[in-house]
């Protein structure tokens, strides 16, 4: 047999095998999973249109809520079904159907796979991690919806799949699910933290309780809190009127000062004041997700994006050989938010002197910078009264105030905790703080062995290099050495100086 004859024979055998396979397939009852899907859609599997959309893993809970709302509107009695079979975790639904139809693999209806996702600081819900449901498009055409959650073998995203007899119906169904997702977004109005992972299934995003602080609990120099509130809360309250008069809403606030003076505490107060506002908190290395956070803030505005310890990321680009890529991500995110967006960027830092000039030189990134200084005598007394408000106190606090010049709020909080511990050692009842207990705690914390502790919590030991260099930021109050900017020396003393 020559080569040509061999080729003809091979082609004939291939055609014969193909016809035999087709005859077997046509004469065999389709598997139950395939029969359910094609019977509902009213078309052969070869004509099924597949439209899919992927979402970040932390959107899984919103995808479930959007799908639930869709089913409630268009198929109230629809029931979910699962799929069992080899490799189902990483095989697309349409591929499972094709493999089952050809007899290559056995994929059959089974139990739905569920996972748990957070819907609040202390609330969870069940989400479908692998399942499908027979429903109809908004126009009434039969379609199949399928949800798949993130999986180590299938990737970090969650996925919506729509099977339909035509593309128009599939696309309309997908778009309606997405619209319902956004209409009932679980993150709207919540306090969120972008982290490495979420302990209840929402990877990257964690829910936090909204702080509840009174203004009396924020000990700052006179006028400072009012300035901050006018800039953040005041603009939010007048957002519609400002927008109607062509004024921008996006704003940036920088809180800077020594460690432990109350920057984070002030931010927590603002979170509590803005009750209807979405808050996204990012700290340290998590700022690498600032692009995602800014996108979420745009979607859920009014919103506040809090960037704590921003000096860890926004150092002058000359400090690093690679030009600080995280800084570029931060600047791009801040610039990418439109001026008319009701979004506030709140930055905190212990080192305003090392911040990248680009944060200051571009108007609209930071338009108000406020220093949170170490408290003077009146401030220290107010802090002691605040932290002792729920204690039985018989000690004279004046000597404490006199001996703690330069100390911060963190120092006084720890001082009273140690005094309470000392009082508890003396009896079983409610502790009564005396001069002896407070004095013992003072000697302990001011002793030589506590030098590192004092440095960490702020006990007033300062070097000549502690004063921050002036950094120019755009001003909303006007004035300054350069037109449109001012030197951020809002060092309002506790005595009004």
Structure description:
With 497 residues, this protein is an alpha/beta fold. It has three domains: 28-183, no CATH class; 210-374 and 470-487, P-loop containing nucleotide triphosphate hydrolases (Rossmann fold, 3-Layer(aba) Sandwich), CATH 3.40.50.300; 377-459, Helicase, Ruva Protein, domain 3, CATH 1.10.8.60. Helices cover 38% and strands 20% of the residues. It has helices at residues 3-27, 32-41, 60-74, 93-101, 167-183, 224-237, 239-244, 263-273, 290-300, 325-336, 357-361, 377-387, 398-403, 409-424, 435-446, 451-457, and strands at residues 49-55, 80-84, 108-110, 113-120, 123-136, 142-148, 158-164, 191-194, 205-208, 251-256, 278-283, 303-308, 343-349, 368-371, 392-393, 432-433, 472-474, 485-487. Strands 1, 2, 3, 4, 5, 6 and 7 form a seven-stranded antiparallel sheet that branches. It has a seven-stranded mixed sheet with strand order 9-8-11-12-13-10-14, with helices on both faces. A two-stranded parallel sheet has the order 15-16. α9 (290-300) runs parallel beside α10, α12 packs across α14 (409-424) and α14 packs across α15 (435-446).
């Amino acid at each position: 047999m020559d080569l040509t004859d061999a080729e003809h024979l091979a082609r004939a055998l291939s055609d014969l095998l193909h016809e035999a396979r087709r005859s077997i397939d046509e004469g065999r009852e389709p598997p139950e999973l395939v029969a359910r899907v094609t019977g509902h859609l009213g078309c052969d599997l070869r004509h099924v249109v597949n439209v899919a959309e992927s979402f970040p893993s932390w959107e899984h809970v919103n995808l479930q809520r959007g799908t639930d709302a869709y089913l409630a509107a268009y198929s109230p009695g629809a029931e979910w079904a699962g799929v069992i079979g080899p490799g189902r975790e990483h095989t697309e639904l349409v591929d499972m159907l094709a493999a089952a139809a050809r007899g290559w693999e056995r994929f059959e209806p089974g139990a739905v796979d569920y996972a748990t996702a957070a819907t609040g600081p202390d609330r969870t819900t069940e989400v479908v991690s692998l399942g499908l449901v027979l429903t109809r498009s908004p126009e009434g055409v039969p379609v199949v919806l399928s949800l798949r959650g993130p999986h180590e073998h299938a990737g970090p995203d969650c996925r919506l799949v729509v099977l339909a007899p035509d593309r128009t119906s599939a696309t309309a169904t997908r778009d309606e699910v997405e619209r319902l997702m956004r209409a009932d977004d679980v993150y709207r109005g919540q306090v969120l933290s972008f982290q490495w992972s979420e302990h209840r299934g929402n990877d990257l995003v964690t829910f936090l309780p909204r702080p509840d602080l009174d203004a009396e609990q924020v000990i700052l120099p006179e006028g400072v809190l009012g300035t901050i509130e006018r800039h953040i809360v005041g603009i939010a309250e007048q957002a519609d009127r400002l927008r109607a008069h062509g004024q921008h809403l996006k704003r940036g606030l920088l809180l800077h000062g020594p460690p432990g003076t109350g920057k984070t505490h002030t931010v927590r107060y603002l979170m509590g004041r803005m009750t209807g506002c979405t808050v996204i908190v990012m700290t340290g290395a998590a700022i690498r997700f600032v692009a995602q956070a800014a996108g979420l803030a745009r979607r859920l505005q009014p919103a506040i994006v809090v960037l704590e310890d921003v000096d860890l990321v926004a150092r002058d680009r000359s400090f690093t050989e690679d030009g600080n890529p995280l800084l570029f991500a931060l600047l791009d995110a801040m610039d990418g938010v439109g001026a008319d967006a009701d979004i506030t960027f709140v930055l905190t830092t212990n080192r305003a002197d090392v911040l990248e000039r680009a944060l200051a030189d571009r108007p609209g990134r930071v338009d108000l910078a406020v220093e949170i200084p170490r408290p003077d005598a009146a401030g220290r007394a107010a802090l002691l009264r605040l932290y002792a408000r729920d204690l039985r106190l018989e000690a004279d606090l004046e000597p404490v105030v006199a001996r703690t010049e330069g100390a911060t709020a963190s120092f006084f909080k720890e001082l009273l905790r140690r005094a309470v511990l000392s009082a508890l050692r003396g009896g079983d009842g409610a502790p009564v703080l005396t001069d002896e207990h407070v004095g013992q705690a003072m000697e302990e914390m001011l002793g030589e062995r506590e030098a590192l502790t004092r440095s960490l919590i702020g006990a007033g030991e300062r070097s000549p290099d502690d004063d921050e260099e002036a950094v120019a930021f755009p001003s909303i109050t006007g004035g300054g050495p350069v037109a449109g900017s001012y030197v951020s020396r809002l060092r309002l003393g506790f005595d009004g100086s």
